[in-house]
Amino acid sequence: FEGEVTWVKTKRGFWGIQTTELGKINPLKLPEAFKVNGILIRGEVRLFPDSHSARNYGTIGELRGVERAN
Questions:
Q1: Which of 4, 48, 60, 61 is the one with CA 20 to 30 A from 35?
Q2: 35, 61 in Cβ contact below 8 A?
Q3: 3-state SS class at 20
Q4: Strand blocks (E) in the chain
Q5: Is this structure's pTM higher than 0.85?
Q6: SS3 (DSSP) at 14
């Protein structure tokens, strides 16, 4: 995947990833180095389409081999 890291403004806020090919990804764990609003990242993701979270944002995913794309 390749996508843009986004800070989603809610009462508590959280990090999400907006991609072109997969839509929104709700990452299980986003490494600290990538918690920067607006950066582009790429890597692999294992999606859990049948799982849900209270965040109600995209598909939950486990990130692997993530790196900056810009």
A1: 48
A2: no
A3: coil
A4: 2-8, 14-19, 24-27, 40-48, 59-68
A5: yes
A6: strand
DSSP state of 53: -
Q: CA of 8: how far to CAs of 32, 65, in Å?
A: 16, 23
Question: What is the C-alpha to C-alpha distance for residues 48 and 9, in angstroms, rounded to an integer?
Answer: 23
**Could you report the per-residue pLDDT of 23-52, keeping only the tens digit for each?**
999 999 999 999 999 999 999 999 999 998
Using an 8 Å Cβ cutoff, are 44 and 21 in contact? no
- Integer angstrom CA distances of residue 44 from 2, 9, 12, 20, 59: 9, 25, 27, 14, 14
